[in-house]
Amino acid sequence: MSIYDNFQEPFVYSWWLVKLLSIIIIFIIMIFLYDKILNKIIKNIYNKYLKKTVTKVKIPIMKKIALNELNNLQKLIKENKIDNRSAYYNLSRIIRLFTKRITNIDFTSMSLKEIKKTEMHDLADLMEEYYMPEFSKQTQGDILTSINKTREVILSWKK
Description:
The chain has six helices and no strands. It is mainly α. The protein starts with 14 loop residues before the first helix and ends with a helix.
């Protein structure tokens, strides 16, 4: 009998466990990299192909159309022919159509979260302001102030 007979065998990791953990770690790293790379690719596509420039002639025409729609909406509000919730809905529609006409990007079907991901910060700010009054049962917003902010964004549009 040798003195080594009483010792326990050394601990050995099973290879399937090591492989499984390696695959999981690689998978997590790939997801992280894929997300980063995909966001970069989407932003590049947006900047190169979707962000179309508009002629200087078209912008004043689009501004005039949007401002006319705002004036009509303000007139309906003053005559009490439209409630605040519908007014916010129409205000959202006006600014979304204006930006769609200028940029050729369909903002009419985008959610607030999607709009925030674009470079249209003024539009995202307005949409955030309209969101609660537009979708809540009891509208609490100040529609005339919102119309004036929308008018300022339209008038200050340069590109």
